[in-house]
Every structure is written in structure tokens, then in C-alpha cells.
Amino acid sequence: MKKTGEKPCRLTDKKYKADMKKLLLFMIAALLLSACGSRLEEKVIETYPNGQAKTMRVYKRNGVCVKETRYYENGQVYMEGGMHDTLRDGHWEAFFPDGKLQSEGFFKDGLRTGHAKIYYENGQVFKEGEYENGSKVGEWKQYDEQGFLLNPDGSVKY
After folding, report:
1. What does R_g of the chain's alpha carbons equal in angstroms?
2. Which residue from 73, 75, 80 is spatially nearest to 58, judged by alpha carbons?
3. Across the beta sheet with 40-47, what order do the strands follow?
4. For 3-42, what is each residue's pLDDT tens digit?
5. Taking the model in full, what pTM does it have?
6. Half-sphere exposure of 54 (CA within 13 A, CB side)
7. 82 pLDDT more than 70
8. Which of 10, 78, 84, 155 sits at 20 to 30 Å (Cα–Cα) from 38?
9. What is the CB-side half-sphere exposure of residue 150 using CA atoms within 13 A?
10. Any bridge partners for residue 153, and if so which?
11. What gap in Å lies between CA 103 and CA 14, rounded to an integer?
């Protein structure tokens, strides 16, 4: 039943038409963006004798490699990071066989650069320092398994 004074909903209502037009334009734009976006493709590059992936790379539609992941034979990630075609580029991480972080650092054009850290299996930092153009630079710090900073001779720094 209609209430007195209530307007019926019509497809000819101007606000309804304007809203539907906006919705349609939004849907068309979203469809075009998703169709034109850069699609990524994963490829297994190398396998273990048991068929498990050893190295997997992610490529853009234009064939440029943007990420590489290497695996232990049990399928756990060994290391992964950014690529620019065939060279390491960006943040890289390596892992112990149990999945805990072993090391992390940055690469530019295939060379280590910037801050790097290496960890003990218990998660404490083992060493940390800087790289420049693939070479260690400056003072590198080393720690014991409890996280105490060590002197160059291996004694704990107090």
C-alpha cells in the first residue's frame, strides 16, 4: 500500500539516472584499468630432482624479471628479493631452513649497497654494517648470541 504523499520510484527520476551514470562510468573505468594493468607471471626456472621448485621468478608482461625466490628442497623459502631483469635490485632476505630470518640487505644493479644484517638462528643480530658498490665499508659490528656487542678480538664490549 502507498502512503499518502509518497512519490513512486521511477526510472525517469533525474537523481537516479545521474547515480546510475556515475556507477556505470566507474565500472567501465575499473574494467579498463584492470585490463590494461601490468600482469605478472610466475615461472619456475630450476627444480630439484624431486620436482620441487628450486628457483622461481616473477616477470612483468614485457618479460622483465621483477622478483626471484629460491627454495630449500623441502619447499621452504631460502632467499627472495627484488630483481631488475637479471640483476638483484632492492630488498633481499635469506632464511634458515626453519623459516627464521638469516640475513637481509639491499642491492642496486646486482651489487650490495646500504645497510645489511646477519642473524643467529635464535634471532639475535650476528653482524651488521654497510655496503657500497658491493664492498663492505665503514665499521662492521659483531654481536654474541645474547646480543652483546663484541670487540674486534671477540670479547664483549662493556
Report:
1. 27
2. 80
3. 40-47, 53-60, 65-71, 77-84, 87-95, 101-108, 111-119, 125-132, 135-142
4. 555 555 555 566 666 666 666 666 776 665 555 555 889 9
5. 0.71
6. 7
7. yes
8. 78
9. 16
10. none
11. 62
pLDDT score of 57: 95
For 100, the grid coordinates are 627464521
Of 3.10.290.10, 3.90.930.1, 3.40.50.1980, 1.25.40.20, the CATH number of 40-142 is 3.90.930.1
The DSSP symbol for 52 reads: -
Average pLDDT (92-105) is 97
- For cell 635464535, the residue is 122
Q: Give the residue-averaged pLDDT of 87-101.
A: 96
Q: Which three cell numbers stand for residue 72?
A: 630449500
